[in-house]
Every structure is written in structure tokens, then in C-alpha cells.
């Protein structure tokens, strides 16, 4: 598929926008279409000034959709974001929703896209009444993803919540799931979003059969996070367990397994029916630890420690987890390290194989201890005292832990740090 420079020079802005849209739509079924993107990306910045608002939004949406397959198109994103920022006042509801979604998708790969978020958020708040259910769901999901990197997006939450409540009955299962996940991400920053939960909870149980494994795990995670601020969410659990137990767990990816096991640990007291899924989840996790990311390993080991008494079948996964954690400690965040050390100390008598992970954890913790919060520091000190007889190497982390506690002792004691 060849596109000449003269053909692109002659292409009007609308034509370029249409080609990008078509390429993004076709990439999964005809990946050869991606070959035309480098040439189009080079010409795109010079065409942006002549584009209408809808065409700009389509270009940004296309860049987000093919973000992993076209580094050349990603290079054009800063220019697109600047143009979107300037024209956001003229965007309709669809263009705003698409651009907001694209900003959330691109924020890590091209952080310059975040300049478009404040004006998009301002106008989304005014256009929420005109949005379809899918657009409302996409905007709420985007606000959740952008929560930390672009807090201006939080200004959309109140109007989105209002109209989601009105349109929740028209949402597809994926929209309901995405909304519930977003509510769980946003409830601390914007507690008013909790008003959307009752409508979602009323409709979601009968839709679970239509969710794939990734969406099911998102629902599990959201239910665990929302159990205290929105206890109505626990009404989903019986149908959720029925759906998971009827699923082919080999179709679950490792992140989905990790999320479900973590959720079961969090919900064991408030929704004990979750425990019925633990044996099969633990068995599946044990078979696939080699594919897990550091966070997945940490979540599973923490879940095993938390579930050790109520669902001892979870201990089946511990030897495999302990074997693979040392290979991933260098990529673990501070919370993952502290959770693993606490879990190892908790599990040492029930599953002594967990001790294999201690030397690598102890060696890595001093490099991350300054990022630990008060809970992590106190957990690590407790764990070190319980492990020092079994694995003396744990003491390698102790000077860094105690020095950090000494520097922040009042906050550690009060847990206000």
C-alpha cells in the first residue's frame, strides 16, 4: 500500500482525517493498513489548522486507538492536542467524549496530550445532557484514568453522575462495568459519584453473562473497593460468583485472576460467598505465575496471606509465587514490596516455601523505603521481627526501615503519614 507525497499534499484536511479514522478501524482485521500511517503522520501537523472540530477529534481518537502500533502518529499528538485545546469550545458531545477518551489513553505515552484536558472538561460539564449512554460511560472512565495526572477532569464527575443516573437503563453491559470501575476509582476524590451506584447495581447482575473475563475482574475489584462507601454493591456478589464459577478460567489473563483473588480476600467478611471461587482461582494462578507482572504477584501473595484461614486452598499458589517474586522485585513499587514482606511473615508457618522470596525483598527494600507510607513501614518492621529467626537476611533491610521510621516517628505512630 503506497501513498505518495503528492497525494498527501493534495489531500484536504477532511480526507486526511477520514483516512486516519479508517486506518484505526481496520487495524485489527487488516494490519497492513498501518503502513500508510507514517506518511500521514508527517503531513498531519500542517493540515490541523484547516480541520473542523469533528475532524480534529477523529484524528486524536485515531492516534489513541493505534497508539502502540504507530510511533510516528504519536509524534503528532502534541500538535493535535494544542489544536483540540483551542477548538474545544466548538466541539459537540461526541467530539468531546472521543477527545477526552483519547487523552486518557495517551497520557502515559504522550503526556503533552494533557494540555487538552482542562478545556475538554469544562465543555463536557456543559454538554453532558446531550451525551449518549456510551459517551457518558467513556467520559466517566476517562475522568477516573486521568484523576492523578489531570485533576481538572474531576470537574466533569458531578454532571456525568447526574445524567448516568438518568440513562443507566440504556447502557450496555460494558458501559455499566466501566462506570462501576470508574466510581471505585473516583469515590474518594469525588464522593458525589456514589449516587450512580444503585442504578448500576440494580441492572448489572442480569448482564454478567455478557461480560468477558477482563470486565468480570474489574467488577470484582470495584465491588471490593466500594463495599464500605456503597454497601449496596454487595448485592452483585451472588451473581458474580455464579458467573465466575461457570467461566473457563483458562480464558482469564493473569491480571484478571490476580484481581479476582485480591477481591475475594477483601470481601471474605462482608461477602463470604466470594470464598467459593478461591480454590479454582488459586489453582489457576499457581499455573500461570510466570506470566504475572510484579503487581499481580504482590496481590496474589497478599491475598494468600489474608485468606490462609478462611480458604486454606489458597496456599497451593504460594510456592510458585515465592519462586517468581525474586525475579520481579526490581520492578516492584514500594507498596508491592511491603505487602510481600508482610505476607511472607504471615505465611511462614503455614507455607514455609514463602521464605524463598525474603532475601531478594530485603535487598530491594532499602532502595524504595523512602517511598513507604506509615502503614508500610510498620508492617515491614513487624515482618522483620517475625522473620529474623527463619531468614536472617531480612535484617539487611532493617537499618533503612528504622532510619526512615526515626525520621518520621510521630507520623508513623499516628498513621497520618
Task: Please provide a written account of the structure.
This protein has helices spanning about 5-10, 15-25, 35-45, 55-65, 70-75, 75-85, 95-105, 115-125, 135-145, 155-165, 175-185, 195-205, 215-225, 235-245, 255-265, 280-285, 295-305, 320-330, 335-345, 360-370, 375-385, 400-405, 410-415. It contains 23 helices and no strands. The chain has three domains: about 1-130, no CATH class; about 135-140 and about 165-210 and about 215-225, no CATH class; about 270-415, no CATH class. Helix 17 (about 295-305) packs antiparallel against helix 18 (about 320-330). The model has no long low-confidence stretch (mean pLDDT about 90). The chain is globular and about 75 Å long. By secondary structure, the chain is mainly alpha-helical.
Amino acid at each position: 500500500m503506497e501513498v505518495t507525497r503528492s497525494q498527501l499534499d493534495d489531500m484536504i484536511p477532511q480526507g486526511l482525517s477520514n483516512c486516519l479514522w479508517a486506518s484505526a478501524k481496520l487495524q485489527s482485521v487488516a494490519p497492513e493498513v498501518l503502513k500508510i500511517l507514517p506518511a500521514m503522520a508527517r503531513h498531519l501537523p500542517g493540515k490541523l489548522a484547516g480541520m473542523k472540530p469533528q475532524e480534529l477529534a477523529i484524528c486524536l481518537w485515531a492516534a489513541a486507538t493505534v497508539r502502540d502500533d504507530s510511533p510516528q502518529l504519536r509524534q503528532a499528538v502534541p500538535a493535535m492536542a494544542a489544536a483540540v485545546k483551542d477548538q474545544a469550545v466548538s466541539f459537540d458531545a461526541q467530539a468531546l467524549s472521543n477527545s477526552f477518551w483519547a487523552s486518557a489513553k495517551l497520557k502515559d505515552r504522550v503526556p503533552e496530550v494533557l494540555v487538552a484536558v482542562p478545556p475538554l472538561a469544562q465543555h463536557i460539564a456543559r454538554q453532558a445532557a446531550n451525551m449518549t449512554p456510551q459517551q457518558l460511560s467513556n467520559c466517566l472512565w476517562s475522568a477516573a484514568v486521568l484523576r492523578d495526572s489531570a485533576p481538572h477532569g474531576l470537574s466533569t464527575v458531578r454532571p456525568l453522575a447526574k445524567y448516568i443516573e438518568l440513562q443507566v437503563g440504556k447502557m450496555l453491559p460494558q458501559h455499566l462495568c466501566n462506570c462501576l470501575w470508574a466510581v471505585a476509582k473516583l469515590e474518594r476524590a469525588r464522593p458525589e459519584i456514589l449516587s450512580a451506584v444503585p442504578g448500576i447495581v440494580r441492572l448489572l447482575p442480569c448482564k454478567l453473562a455478557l461480560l468477558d473475563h477482563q470486565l468480570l475482574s474489574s467488577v470484582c475489584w470495584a465491588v471490593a473497593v466500594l463495599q464500605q462507601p456503597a454497601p449496596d454493591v454487595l448485592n452483585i456478589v451472588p451473581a458474580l460468583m455464579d458467573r465466575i464459577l461457570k467461566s473457563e478460567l483458562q480464558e482469564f489473563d493473569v491480571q484478571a485472576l490476580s484481581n479476582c483473588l485480591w477481591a475475594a480476600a477483601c470481601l471474605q467478611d462482608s461477602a463470604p460467598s466470594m470464598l467459593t471461587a478461591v480454590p479454582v482461582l488459586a489453582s489457576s494462578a499457581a499455573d500461570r505465575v510466570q506470566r504475572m507482572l510484579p503487581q499481580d504477584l504482590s496481590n496474589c501473595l497478599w491475598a494468600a496471606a489474608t485468606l490462609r484461614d478462611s480458604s486454606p486452598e489458597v496456599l497451593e499458589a504460594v510456592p510458585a509465587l515465592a519462586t517468581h517474586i525474586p525475579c520481579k522485585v526490581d520492578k516492584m513499587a514500594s507498596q508491592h514490596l511491603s505487602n510481600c514482606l508482610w505476607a511472607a511473615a504471615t505465611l511462614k508457618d503455614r507455607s514455609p516455601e514463602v521464605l524463598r522470596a525474603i532475601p531478594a525483598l530485603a535487598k530491594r527494600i532499602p532502595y524504595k523505603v523512602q517511598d513507604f507510607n506509615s502503614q508500610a513501614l510498620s508492617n515491614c518492621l513487624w515482618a522483620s521481627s517475625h522473620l529474623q529467626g527463619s531468614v536472617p537476611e531480612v535484617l539487611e533491610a532493617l537499618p533503612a526501615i528504622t532510619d526512615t521510621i526515626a525520621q518520621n516517628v510521630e507520623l508513623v505512630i499516628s498513621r497520618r503519614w
